[in-house]
Amino acid sequence: MSGAGSEKVAIVPGDGIGPEVVESALAVLDAAGASFEKVFLEIGLSRWKRTGVAMSEEDLQTLKECDCILFGAISTPSDPNYKSVLLRIRRELDLYANIRPFRSRDLDFIIVRENTEGLYSGLEELGAEESRTLRVVTRRGSERIAEKACDLAAGRRRLTVIHKSNVLKSDRLFLESCRAVASKRAVPCEDMLVDAAAYNLVINPKRFDVMVTTNLFGDILSDEAAGVIGSLGLCASANVGTRHALFEPIHGSAPDIAGKGIANPVGAIRSAAMMIQWLGEAEKAQRIEAAVQWALARGARTPDLGGSCRTAEVTEAVVENLRSSHTANLA
Ligand code: NAD
Ligand code: IPM
Ligand code: MN
User: Is-contact 308 300, C-beta < 8 A?
Assistant: First the structure.
């Protein structure tokens, strides 16, 4: 990745608060001096309601052709006629690793979530009296997510494999594969049953460092982790494969607060920082994180954090800090 401004980034604002937080993330990227070509795409439930199509084949092609994707959030109704486009994008672009860092004043851990198999296999039957969803775990899928988790564990304390192998045979394969990779990579590794992990995350979150787990457990544990560090609105993620990458806050479209101008933009801003880091601009990514911490420490907080700021005010605080640090660097 050159980082010289020649990249093409697909921008998918999505539904609900998605467009509100993506606008903030783009303002912050601009203030950090990150330049790239933007390709805006309307994908999601509002597009589906308007046209009957949530994402066209052409959109999918465009997503594949761009260097990466900045994503807001989309609404996914529990309607059997509506297929989640986010899951389709993750699958079609083979974004097998969902990396979710959680950071606060005294916590710093990462959930590495397998993103293409498990209970998200899409192999389902809906019946009037009985319905089934097939949980698929493969050795290849488990080994590649374990390799990614070991990459992230470099220079850190340890890997914790989270599973339910006392009940699920599929998780015996997951656990065995992760242990084998950790041993080959000489990464200190422990494992924990998912119910105990959910409990420990609340009572002793500091004991965790890099956690690796299957798709649905990772989804649930990451919202729990967001609660532990203070708000869903603070948390970012990278969905990466070998060729493509999509960056998005971990929260959804939050219809309860959409349009009110009070969504916390920090998760989207941190996702944008993860994106430019991935594009090779590590220094700009670090400046964005420092500006976020500066703004939060000075009370630029939306209501989810107990503050009274609006989305635009938090964004402005981050932007101001970046502009002044940039001027200071030039002086
Ligand atoms: P949600 O994450 O949208 O919201 C859960 C709660 O957290 C709500 O009370 C919301 O107001 C609050 N919240 C979320 N983000 C916030 C932010 N940035 N600032 C302040 N508060 C915030 O989950 P939900 O309500 O269960 O789902 C809403 C819709 O979003 C559903 O259709 C769901 O399928 C979809 N969803 C999409 C994604 C995605 O696109 N990546 C992720 C999760 C949920
Ligand atoms: C997430 C979301 C998605 C998931 C939904 C919207 C399909 O909850 O990214 O955490 O379950 O992966
Ligand atoms: Mn989720």
Answer: no
Per-residue pLDDT tens over the stretch 60-92: 999 999 999 999 999 998 887 888 899 999 999
Active site residue 15: no
Q: What's the predicted TM-score (pTM) here?
A: 0.97
pLDDT tens track for 117-136: 999 999 999 999 999 999 99
Is there a catalytic annotation at residue 164?
Answer: yes
Structure tokens of 31? 């203030």
Instruction: Please count the other Cβ atoms lying within 10 Å of the Cβ belonging to residue 117.
Output: 23
- Ligand 1 atom with minimal separation from the 268 CA: 18
Q: For residues 105 and 70, what is the distance between their CA atoms, to the nearest angstrom? A: 26
Q: How many CA atoms lie within 13 A of 38 on its CB side?
A: 17
Strands (E), 164-285: 189-193, 210-213, 236-240, 245-249
Query: Of the candidates 110, 115, 112, which has an alpha carbon nearest to the alpha carbon of residue 96?
Result: 115
Determine which residue's CA is closest to atom 22 belonging to ligand 1: 233
Of 8, 30, 83, 195, which is the active-site residue? 195
Atom of ligand 2 nearest to the CA of 98: 9
Question: What residue type is assigned to position 159 of the chain?
Answer: L
Q: How far is CA 207 from the centre of its chain?
A: 22
Helices 282-297 + 311-330 axis angle, to 10: 120
In short, whether 98's Cβ falls inside 6 Å of ligand 2 is no
pLDDT at 329: 62
Q: Which of 15, 67, 219, 304 is catalytic?
A: 219
Range 171-188 average pLDDT: 98
Say whether 223 is catalytic: yes
Q: Which amino acid is at 286?
A: Q
Pairing of strands 108-114, 210-213: parallel
Q: What whole-number distance in Å separates Cα of residue 241 and Cα of residue 317?
A: 33
Displacement of CA 234 from its chain's centroid (Å):
11
Mean pLDDT over residues 151-171, rounded? 97
Do the Cβ atoms of 267 and 236 come closer than 8 Å? Answer: yes
- Check 15, 59, 120, 284 and give the catalytic one: 120
